[in-house]
User: Fold this.
Amino acid sequence: MRSSNPVFSRRGFSRDHGPAGFNAQQPQAGGPAVGTNPYAQGTGNPYATNPYATQDTQYAAPPQTRGDVMTIDDVVSRTAMTLGTVVITAALSWFLLPVDEANIGKSYGIAIGAALVAFVLAMVQSFKRKASPAIILAYAAFEGVFLGVISAAVSTYISPGVVAQAVLGTMAVFAGVLIAYKMRWIRVTRRFYGFVMAAAIGFVLLMAVNALFSLFDGAGDGLGFRSGGLGILFGVIGIILGACFLALDFKQVEDGVTYGAPREESWLAAFGLTMTLVWIYLEMLRLLSILQGDD
Assistant:
């Protein structure tokens, strides 16, 4: 199952042959084809087929374990490193790039520049065939600079407690989706993936149009999608989409561990999870800012 994140675009469903990289067998809903391995690299790979898979089981453990395959511990440790880099650089930029009236223009300029660099690094990693820890950590560092300045500005000019609320809200969404996914209350199927991607494309296009109109609007509100009642509605939609992205990411991690993905794939999992959490945090911060501003 392909994740919403571009770093997972090499894996997932293809229009003509079912899951990309899978055998030609018919896939089950919500999972890869029975007995096949999307990470197989030829007949020499011991995980190319799964002798324990049956028509009644969606997953089964690999026939053996090796030191060079991805594990949950690998994903957790890499994600901790990536998110830790985001948090550290965000904290440093909060204190070193003041957002008072004398320095806010300079700080905003640095933040926008960091966001652009982070976007370029994300695109570079997304189109690379292999994970690059240096690029991923650099992305996290520049993303942290952007988040630190934006968070400091929101905390200074809107509400001192809104950043802590956004962080707690992001953690709550992550925990809630993880529990729902583990309990199988959320089932990631082809239909789920298609719905999420269609909704995400529509959401991003609307926000792009709104940003374009805001350039010609003296108040900076564009079409009003980021303020008032519409702003609250689209903020909630953005958070829900982020939660759906998390479910897709969890599915990708589960498939990678189940089928013995190369250990380097854990960096891609960490990268994808970090991008999703950043999305949720920004949408949460924006929503709370609107709510606090209306008080």
The mean pLDDT is 78. The radius of gyration is 21 Å. The first strand starts at residue 12 and ends at 14.
